[in-house]
Amino acid sequence: MSLVGINGPSYRFRRTTDARARIVEGNHRTLESVFSAAQAVGVSLDAAQQAQFRRYGELIELRSNQFNLTGAKSWERIREELFIRSLRILTPAGGNVPTPEWFAGKRAIDVGSGVGVPGIVMKIAIPELRVTLLDSIQKRTNFLEEVVAELKLEDVEVINARAEELGQDPSHRESYDVVTARAVARLAELAELTIPFASIGGIVILPKSAGVEKELEEAGSAAELLGAAPAITLKVDRPGDSPPDDMVYWMKISSTPREFPRRIGVPHQSPLIERIV
Fold this sequence. Notes:
This protein has helices at residues 9-40, 47-67, 75-87, 100-103, 119-125, 138-150, 163-166, 187-194, 213-225, 266-269, and strands at residues 107-111, 130-135, 156-160, 176-180, 198-209, 232-236, 245-251. It is α/β, with parallel strands linked by helices. The protein has a domain at 90-269: Rossmann fold (3-Layer(aba) Sandwich). It has a seven-stranded mixed beta sheet, with helices on one face. It is globular, with a radius of gyration of 21 Å. The termini are far apart.
């Protein structure tokens, strides 16, 4: 039996081509689960939206490996942790919790957007949503601008600034129907960084890992001081296979006092925490 050519250029080319084909096929399967997740929360993605999700995932994978933008660098993590978990924000739950249709035409700001999560995910899913993406790190806002241009997203503004500063800007303060933040900060800190952006009647939506009862107690007085009604929380474990999220909703019912948010760094260093005995 002849083994000539087993390690030759043509064999290596075929092996490389086959490997790339398997990767592409796997990526398509991964994104099919994203499309199914959108359907599960009541959003049907057309071919253009599906293509936007595909290209968005490619850009995250490419630029994160170049510039370390996020820890989610593999397609599996991009799918589950960034795309599908963000779609949980659109979960219809009735009562005062918005349904996907409610978001259409609303003005939203994503505070600490990072690679655009959940802001860009929400924008792709609901094109009529008007979105501001706020992040204080330049390399991230550079990436967000690239994504907005590449995906041809309309009515999206990218801002490189701190929430403490922008929250005092009259063109953004109390100007948004929806405020989101996917952050690891405690709720007392997030309250001061998010509630000032919400208009009267607007809503702040904060996805948090399960088990936020103590944080909610700590942040209760702060949220009230900042103009929010008592929080509504919902445990959301679908779509996706990630651990459940506690979705925290604050509705804005009165204006935020002028002194909030405080200067840069203070909400983190000295959060408005109600001491729990």
